[in-house]
Design brief:
By secondary structure, the protein is α+β, with helices and mostly antiparallel strands. The protein is about 65% helix and about 10% strand. It is built from ten helices and five strands; from the N terminus they run H-H-H-H-H-H-H-H-E-H-E-E-H-E-E. It has a five-stranded mixed sheet. Strand 2 and strand 3 form a beta hairpin. Helix 3 (about 65-80) crosses helix 4 (about 95-125), helix 3 (about 65-80) crosses helix 5 and helix 8 packs parallel to helix 9. The radius of gyration is 32 Å and the shape is elongated.
């Protein structure tokens, strides 16, 4: 334990709290002594003022929005912890500020314990008792640092709403990125393929069929112009990144329309729903819709009897999606569609599993919902 660098980093983190706690203690003690020296101030008033002087500055400092960002950075560096959803920024809501205040008080209290032990060691002198106190302070500082590392993600980490907001931004960025990739693949990629084919054909017949070669070169010129226009259009999409989309993405409230569409395409779908699908968080509703859409698309492609069973259940703790269909493949294969489903589920801290047993393909997706019910 003592050979690990993180042990000493934890000690440093606790000592930072000790330094701040000591500064507050010196300030409070100085003010209290000045008040106590005045004969005109009753004892009860002195005690009340001493309490306020000890509590109010700590509370005011802990509620400052930027304190969370500072404490989180120190915790990441010295306690070597990772926050789910990324590094937290300033506390923008009162719920986040209260969580930060609790953390700040715990940090100061852990440091105050070390200050008290070291102070006792100094008072005891440098004998055996003092040496024991110093060793106890070192061991305790490491243990307190470890304990603080366990509670840091819950008290300092991004709230559920913050994570959803970040996912919204990341999803929008990925949508634009994918849209740009499709534009390049469908337009510029097609033009380059045409140029390659025409150039190869012209090179083969240029000596014996000049007219064909000239036509091929003309086609290459036209394809090049078209590719240049398409590239300009694709770069325009890249420059527009961040602007709101002109069309809204459907969510699970549009499940009936989706099922109607796949039924009209020839897939017999038996649908069972449980719970209110219209009250899901917007991000979850949209991603779940895309997951269901991709699952039904796979069923249309691979179901041997053109039939599938879909179950969507919105429980208090999670959203569960199960899709089953007979499969023509002899084993479960992981294509781009299944990879996309897994990525969408993972983005929402969920999971996606698929299997092929006795000729039946099963897709199970689970997305947690409980985190959103605890945030205010």
């Amino acid at each position: 334990m003592l050979t690990s660098a993180v042990t000493y980093l934890r000690m440093v983190f606790v000592l930072l709290g000790a330094g701040v706690a000591l500064a507050f203690a010196i300030l409070d003690l100085t003010v209290v002594v000045l008040i106590a020296e005045s004969d005109d101030v009753p004892l009860a008033v002195t005690v009340m003022l001493a309490t306020l002087i000890s509590v109010v500055p700590i509370a005011c400092l802990g509620l400052i929005p930027g304190v969370r960002e500072i404490e989180a950075t120190a915790a990441q560096t010295l306690l070597e912890i990772d926050f789910p959803g990324g590094s937290p920024g300033p506390a923008r809501t009162w719920a986040d500020r209260r969580r930060t205040l609790v953390w700040f008080v715990l940090h100061l209290l852990s440091g105050a314990v070390i200050v008290a032990i070291v102070g006792g060691a100094i008072t005891a002198g440098f004998g055996a008792l003092g040496l024991v106190a110093i060793v106890a302070a070192v061991v305790l500082a490491s243990g307190l640092g470890y304990a603080l590392g366990l509670v840091a993600p819950g008290l300092l980490g991004p709230s559920y709403d913050e994570r959803i907001s970040r996912l919204e931004s990341e999803s929008a960025r990925l949508v634009e990125r994918n849209r740009l990739a499709r534009e390049i693949h469908d337009s510029i990629g097609h033009a380059l393929s045409l140029i390659t084919v025409q150039a190869s054909a012209a090179a083969l017949v240029i000596d014996r069929d000049r007219d064909f070669a000239v036509k091929a070169l003309g086609a290459i010129e036209q394809a090049s112009r078209s590719a240049a226009d398409d590239l300009d259009h694709a770069l325009g999409l890249l420059r527009e990144n961040g602007q709101p989309s002109r069309t809204s993405t459907p969510d699970l409230s549009a499940l009936d329309s989706l099922v109607t569409a796949v039924r009209s395409a020839g897939l017999k779908v038996k649908v069972t729903t449980d719970g209110d699908l219209t009250t899901l968080p917007a991000m979850i509703g949209r991603e779940a819709y895309r997951i269901t859409q991709e699952g039904l698309t796979n069923a249309m492609k691979h179901s041997t009897d053109r039939a599938a069973t879909l179950t969507v259940s919105a429980r208090p703790e999670e959203l569960a999606i199960r899709l089953t269909n007979t499969a023509a493949r002899t084993r479960a294969e992981r294509g781009r569609g299944l990879a996309g489903i897994t990525e969408r589920a993972a983005t929402l801290d969920g999971s996606a599993e698929h299997s092929l047993i006795d000729g039946e393909f099963r897709l199970d997706v689970r997305i947690p919902l409980t985190a959103g019910r605890g945030d205010s």
